[in-house]
Specification:
By secondary structure, the chain is mainly alpha-helical. It contains 11 helices and no strands. Helix 1 packs antiparallel against helix 2 and helix 6 packs antiparallel against helix 7.
């Protein structure tokens, strides 16, 4: 430890306390972890208590440079998000073109007769899921990026907006509690009896959306920095279930579709 901090010329006693700091910083945990900013704050507070005034001054001088470089890197990284933002804004425009066809079709908006109470319960839970997820992404963003990456925040909120416009049933189901999952499973089973022409209507609109999006993706693909997250493989049965349950959750009033 004395060798690691030789540039500060620490004593053996100081090295013991710095070793304890390293142990605390690296404690194993599945649920608690520092952002780099929090780790730097923890380090600064600890070092201030261990080092002499002269040593701490030397530490702060080096640390300011480390943080300055990290800030510059975040700002530069954020500039690369503009094309991805444009891609997602265009994708939202495609949904704006296609979704009104669903809202104009009474059979789409109520394919399961006599299940209004269960459907409204599931919509209310999905609305709560969206609020919880938005709070999570805001907390995560400012915890890890502070105010350095506004484009990255905008992109995260666009991703989230897509879940308002076209409900992400598969993602929603991953975090359901048991009562909500029981209602969802019941409605899934009911959906297996939906008339074929209803599912044909859904698949035609989704095929149209996918075709538009393929053109959109081709325009921006070469300028994206880093991979675009895509959903995992789905069987035809899973795809049908997820699409029909997404239609069941569609509600332009509940989730602020046109906000």
């Amino acid at each position: 430890m004395q060798q690691q901090y030789s540039w500060l010329n620490v004593t053996l006693e100081q090295a013991k306390w710095l070793h304890r700091f390293e142990q605390d910083k690296n404690l194993p945990s599945n649920s608690h972890f520092f952002s780099e900013w929090e780790e730097w704050d923890f380090e600064r507070a600890t070092f201030q208590a261990i080092l002499t005034g002269e040593q701490f001054e030397k530490y702060e001088e080096r640390q300011k440079e480390v943080i300055r470089n990290a800030q510059i890197n975040r700002v530069e990284e954020d500039k690369t998000k503009l094309e991805e933002i444009a891609y997602h804004q265009t994708l939202l425009e495609f949904y704006d073109q296609i979704l009104p066809e669903f809202f104009k079709n009474p059979r789409m908006m109520n394919p399961l007769f006599f299940e209004d109470t269960k459907i409204e319960f599931l919509k209310a839970e999905y609305k709560r899921f969206l609020a919880e997820r938005k709070k999570g992404l805001l907390v995560h963003h400012f915890r890890f990026y502070r105010t350095l990456m506004p484009n990255t925040l905008k992109l995260s909120l666009l991703h989230h907006k897509l879940n308002h416009v076209w409900p992400n049933y598969s993602l929603f189901k991953l975090g359901m509690d048991e009562p909500t999952k029981a209602i969802a499973t019941y409605l899934e089973e009911k959906h297996s009896y939906v008339l074929e022409d209803i599912y044909e209507f859904v698949t035609q609109r989704m095929d149209k959306l996918n075709a538009l999006n393929a053109e959109n993706f081709a325009k921006f693909e070469k300028t994206f920095h880093g991979p675009i997250a895509k959903a995992g493989p789905e069987t035809p049965e899973e795809l049908q279930k997820n699409q029909l349950m997404s239609v069941l959750l569609l509600d332009k009033d509940q989730y602020g579709w046109q906000d």
